[in-house]
Amino acid sequence: MNPEVKRITERNIMYDYLKRLFIRRQVFLKTKELNIETSSFVFNEDGVAFTVSQSVPDESISLYIRNGNELIIARVVLTGRTGEEYKCTVSDMLIMNIPRKEDRVNAAVNNDAGRAYISNIISDFTLKENFEDNKRKILALKDDLEEKLGKKYDRVKIYSISDQKLDDRMKYFMEERKPYFIRDVTQRTEDDPQYRYYIKNIYPAQHEADRKMISEIAVPFLYRYMMPFGYLRVNGTKALADEDFSSLKKYGMSISTFFTNDTSIIRSSDDRVAITDLSMTGLGIIFKDRVLIKHFREDSLVIFTVFLPGNRTSTVMCQVKNITILKNGVYRTGCSIVNFDAIGEVNYSEYLESAGISTNPDAEHQPSGG
Question: pTM for this one?
Answer without folding.
Answer: 0.79
